[in-house]
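From the pipeline queue, job 12 of 40. The input is one protein chain; the requested action is below.

Action: predict structure.
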Amino acid sequence: MGNSVIIDTDPGQDDAVALLLALGSTLDVLAVTVGAGNVPLDLTVKNALKVCDLANRSDLPVYAGAGGPLEGDLVTAEHVHGPSGLDGYDLPPPSRLASKGYAPDKIVELIMNRPVGEVTLCTLGPLTNVALALRLEPKIAKRLSKVVMMGGGFFEGGNTTPAAEFNIYVDPVAAAEVFSSGIDLVMMPLDVTHQVLSNPDRVRAFKEIGNLAGEVVAGWIGFFDRYDMEKYGTEGAPLHDPCVIAYLLEPGLFSGRFCNVEIETESPLTRGMTVVDWWGVSGRTPNAHVMRHVDAEGFFSLLVRTVGML
């Protein structure tokens, strides 16, 4: 696995927790690239900058990218994340503006200027920036170590439509291009993320860390929880995006299967569906390592331990 990472994101409380996990760890984060998704681009950029400030990483480049999907109109999720995208704790305004440069260009530049296999790309939102980077320079598919992405679902279905998970639904055309690119893909679907629920004891553990980052994370989760708890009838909400970073830090927490995944881009009923051939019935060539199980206690232990070091 590559030693250096680029994080492509659309913060979002769970994206923000994933960023804190990465920035509090030993990962060499080269840059944060940002697209629209959970909220529009101006807010996702602002939120990424705020999280970098919280982690004392105002030196880290943050590049703005796509303001909408490759085709069609942008779908956002303020009903989940609040109008700011980071409701639940009011962070100060960011200390700086985004770095100069367009996120897809910077993804290409960072990958092409490093040895083959050195860079891992982590995607926490829609795959628009990654698809645009592939269009600019298809060679990045073979130069990357891998892409570890949060998106999709199979046995769990979807969370935005009955068939589609949010990140894929926002830009299924981009997802289809990424999944067919030949990139080494690791997929964190809802089937995994719905196993890491932020129950009251786990939220309390963040509060008890005793630092600002722990207090902020507890506030974010406390806000984020209410939507999924009502929707699913669970005692907490899934922390989707931190699964991507946790996999990079402790891959043994996760298990899954190498299989074929195709993206539905046309059907009005199932647009954005990740068609996962878990049982190998289609004969199509496998193209993604699809995770299905996670050690939830180990995941939260890693998260609390790392946030405690910020």
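Job complete. Residues 4-307 form a domain with the Inosine-uridine Nucleoside N-ribohydrolase; Chain A fold (CATH 3.90.245.10).
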